[in-house]
UniProtKB/TrEMBL annotation:
Organism from which the protein derives: Carboxylicivirga linearis
Cross-referenced CDD domains: trans_reg_C (cd00383)
Residues covered by the OmpR/PhoB-type domain: 124-224
Keywords for this protein: DNA-binding, Phosphoprotein, Transcription, Transcription regulation, Two-component regulatory system
Residue span, Response regulatory domain: 2-116
Protein name, entry field: Response regulator transcription factor
Domain of life of the organism encoding this protein: Bacteria
Length: 225
């Protein structure tokens, strides 16, 4: 899952990035309004953690833009203790939740997870697709109730595909979503095929169905049946 963290307090920004990265998220960071605006225009994020007060603009304007464009990014507001009106306005704009400084990183992580569940899987603790069961809490996968051993990237690939069933996903979008914005520097995306091929083999060897359909010259679709 890919997260954008928008926070002008550099020390706090680093703390959030390190903590959420250890939790297995792909994290991108912005320390001001202009950086965040540029990233939101260029890339898609599952969740954006946005500080309302930024040195060169308002986080509320970022939220407003996301909602005007109907972008389905989940939004967690970071606010100061005395900014009740801003928090309420942010929620009215369409933010999913807020957290007030100072906060525990574990609480922020819990709120991010809750937003992702509501946004992507209608609040379900487990994601079930036919014989495949995914538990995002402990990042485990089972097929017909038998545990499936996956690498971190194989798990992230499967999670990404299931979260985007029936959507055409290009190799570029898969690489950018799972490896971060620096993937733009890659010469090619052949390594995507290797990871997908390994994932397919493990699912089939475990008695599962290969729901992944290759759209030649374009990318991949994860089908319902």
């Amino acid at each position: 899952m890919k997260i954008l963290i928008v926070e002008d307090e550099i020390e706090l920004l680093k703390e959030i990035e390190v903590f959420l990265s250890k939790e297995g998220y792909i994290c991108e960071v912005s320390k001001n309004f202009n950086e965040a605006s540029e990233k939101l225009h260029m890339y898609h994020y599952d969740v954006a953690v946005i500080d309302i007060t930024l040195p060169d603009g308002s986080g509320l304007s970022l939220i407003q833009w996301l909602k005007q464009k109907n972008i389905d990014t989940g939004i967690l507001i970071i606010s100061a203790k005395n900014s009740l009106d801003d928090k309420l306005y942010g929620l009215d704009l369409g933010a999913d939740d807020y957290i007030t400084k100072p906060f525990y990183l574990a609480e922020l992580n819990a709120r991010v997870k809750a937003i992702a569940r509501r946004r992507m899987f209608k609040g379900s603790v487990e994601i079930i697709h036919n014989e495949i069961r995914i538990n995002p809490e402990n990042k485990s996968v089972s097929i017909n109730d038998n545990a499936l051993s996956l690498t971190k990237k194989e798990y992230e690939l499967l999670f990404f595909f299931v979260a985007n069933k029936k959507r055409l996903l290009t190799k570029e979008s898969i690489a950018e979503h799972l490896w971060g914005d620096n993937i733009d520097l890659a010469d090619n995306y052949d390594f995507i095929y290797t990871h997908i091929n390994n994932l397919r083999k493990k699912i089939l060897n475990a008695g599962g169905t290969d729901y992944l359909h290759t759209v030649y010259g374009m990318g991949y679709k994860y089908l319902e049946e």
